[in-house]
Design a protein that fits this description.
3 helices, 10 strands, about 180 residues, 7-stranded mixed beta sheet, alpha+beta, binds zinc ion
């Protein structure tokens, strides 16, 4: 009559394993940058100080779900991120299924303040760097400067910053003029 207390398999893998679990299982995890949501209930660490890439997305899904004209995201491996309290205080939204479940790809947010934390893809993470604590370190912040714009054809404002502007996905659509 008792249910198994073991968590779903995905909760036992990065980024949902906390730094102590990583150490206990013999992985090294160096805490380089801290990220927190608006209310502070969700806290995470990054083990690398430079993303694999960084971009602005102007797609209409981002406009709707972020309540913003466009979105800023930085790409990381799942192993590069570790939530201090595991899945506690996280809520999930599967954008494909349009359901509040952990189905990839999915949006992850704080279940208390609603701050959007990241898009979890099947293989990678796209996290939202506005939550990172750069502590006045301009060099560190520069590592996260977006290199390009995607879905610029859907933009609600022009951004003449000289960076490449793709009409859809980068490398899979047309480059646009400013
Ligand atoms: Zn919060
Ligand atoms: Zn988008």
């Amino acid at each position: 009559m008792t249910e198994s207390a073991s968590p779903p398999e995905w909760q036992t893998r990065p980024p949902y394993t906390d730094p102590r679990q990583r150490e206990a299982s013999g992985q090294s995890f160096v805490k380089k940058i801290e990220g927190t949501c608006h209310c502070g209930k969700v806290k995470y660490w990054l083990s690398r100080d430079k993303p694999l890439g960084s971009k602005y997305c102007h797609c209409t899904d981002c406009q709707v779900m972020h309540g913003a004209p466009f979105q800023w995201a930085a790409i990381f491996h799942k192993e590069d991120m570790s939530f201090e309290h595991g899945v506690r205080n996280l809520s999930f939204y599967s954008s494909g299924a349009k359901k509040p479940t952990h189905g990839l790809p999915c949006k992850v947010r704080c279940d208390n303040c609603g701050s959007l934390i990241m898009d979890e893809g099947r293989n990678m993470l796209l996290l939202f760097p506005s939550l990172l604590k750069f502590e006045g370190n301009e060099e560190l912040k520069r590592n996260f400067q977006p290199e390009l714009h995607i879905f610029y054809s859907r933009r609600v404002l022009d951004i003449p910053d000289g960076k490449p502007k793709w009409s859809g996905l980068d490398g899979q659509s047309e480059l646009m003029s400013e």
